[in-house]
Design goal:
Layout (H helix, E strand, L loop, with lengths): L14 H9 L2 E8 L2 E8 L1 E3 L7 E7 L13 E12 L12 E11 L2 E3 L2 H17 L14 H9 L1 E16 L6 H11 L7 H10 L3
Antiparallel strand pairs: 1-2, 1-5, 3-4, 4-8, 5-6, 6-8, 7-8
Helix pairs in contact: 4-5
Amino acid sequence: MYTPSPFAFPADRPDAAQAVMRENPFAAMVVTGPEGLDAVHIPFLFDPTQGDYGTLRAHVARANPIWRLFDGAPALVIFWGPHAYVSPDWYQTEGLVPTWNYVAVHAYGVPRIVEDPERVAAMMADLTAASEQSLAPKPPWTLKKVPEKQRTALMRGIVAFEIPITRIDAKQKLSQNRSAADVAGVAAGLRTTGGVYDATFAELMEKTER
């Protein structure tokens, strides 16, 4: 990922990229097969305790042929953080052009299929628990609410896998190459739009050191 130095994650915060993966678990995984590139959009669970850079865990439907491409070749998993369009009208400096600010993390590693039924069940339970946590204070739904026979059939219908991360590229383009006045103008403009990420992004821009 092309990352000019102003847009690099802080060197003294190695956990910053990990936080993006935890907080934005729905990602795109890209793999290469005999016919070229293929991709799938699925939620991932990030485990920081396994491996030098952590490990990603996920599953796909067994009917999805993408898992058959897991032959030792690396995969790329793309996580998106907040993002927002920036209008030149918000800058104090004249003569600038539109741009898009964003946060993104690329994680690389070789997928490996998990065969052990107990591990697969644990992975499913962990992913469900992490997803349900975001709905608190709602009482969490658990797999135990699915009858055992049906749960067993569902497990047979998926392929679980994990990706020990071998490399992480991270980028946060937050107008770090603009003046304080320009950043303040963009943040103020974003707060007027009502966009899903815009107010959050404005706060993130203001907090980022330059």
